């Protein structure tokens, strides 16, 4: 975090301006206001960012979005004006590109939820995750209503017209998309009541695969043309008019076109994005809720305490060098909401003298997305998975100093009630045990979907074994459309042995041999 401007503490409504020049397209640079020098994202009350989708966004409470979509271009200087209302903890953002009119980027957006009770602001900060932005010409704060301190004409903070006296009500929608899909391909049109004048995607699309215009037409972005895989994307869209905003759920189910090979995550395409600047850190304990950690190079174990709910790690590298370290991320406390996105996790491998795991995600609502795992015996080890998702990851190079004591498994599941494992590359270079191993040693195995994965090797590609110490019948377990390279003994193991037909409680549909394409 860089504080590029300090100003007199502001306790009343005020406005402030600055210029920012992004160094590259599709970068990730956040600029925001704080009380004191900000140390992390959660210290920022009012935030604007150059985002990886190629658009400028602002923070609205718990998520990002925009009242009007504003694209940006590398090496172009943009003028920002932020009108901050300390009185009700809301703010507006205006953006002006060279030789263009000023645009309302954000209207009546809420302070970040962690800063909703802040009483003063006195720093303008910059946080770089990918790329950079040259930030200059910060003005002195001006009382709201005073003329701007630059030659840019003032712009009214009144939202765009339309909608009468009620905010939009968005109609929930579901769309099907055939992939591969070109940039600009139509996904569908989202509708709402009360004549919205602008639309944005506020959640569910962290990689910027989709774009929605101000008529509600959703299309595939340039990032989506190369990144969308066969899975379901659950988005939140926001429609805005002069009376306010409303949000709704939109599901996009992407399916592979017949005769085209599916795309699976690669070693190079997962983990910390290339060009990310990392800050070195030792291991630490997360003891308070709603903490977000970005672009850290962590050596040692991160422990999630019981109070560390909703801990989020984005673009971080975890390295275990100690021979006696068991975990990279240890959530044995069971704190809910752990999210690990676009992170690289590297274990000690054969240098370890203990069983080595990457993540123990014992709490409910776990999300692992776009991560890269290497040199662990069991990279992801669920005691019991509850409403958990592992997707878009690359897990390989399994290694442990105790190969006969510990099974080699990309993902171990000791119990489950709500688990989705989708669109991952799972490679087990050993003759035992599996890419995905499920056995009810902790709790029953139920409500599990394993779909659109590439699974290679192990004794079997996958185990589904109901003979564990906890007992309980396997139920509602689905293996759908997975590409499999046969393990040493077969594709699927179900106690007491190899099965030709799926056992009770298991659906086995559309799975095929990755080499031959033949159904298995």
Task: Give a description of the structure.
It is a single chain. The chain is mostly beta strands and 520 residues long. The chain has 4 domains: 142 residues, Jelly Rolls (Sandwich); 84 residues, Cadherins (Immunoglobulin-like); 143 residues; 108 residues. 1% of the residues lie in helices and 47% in strands. The chain contains 1 helix and 48 strands. It has a 10-stranded parallel sheet, with no helix packed on it. A 10-stranded mixed sheet has the order 21-24-27-30-33-36-39-42-45-46, with no helix packed on it. Strands 22-25-28-31-34-37-40-43-47 form a 9-stranded parallel sheet, with no helix packed on it. A hairpin with a 4-residue loop joins β4 and β5. It starts with a strand and ends in a 7-residue tail after the last strand. About 4% of the residues have low confidence.
The proportion of residues in beta strands is over 45%
Question: In total, how many domains does the architecture comprise?
Answer: 4
Class derived from helix and strand content:
mainly beta
What value does the Rg take, in angstroms?
Answer: 24 Å
Main β sheet profile: 10 strands, parallel
Please work out how many helical segments DSSP would assign. 1
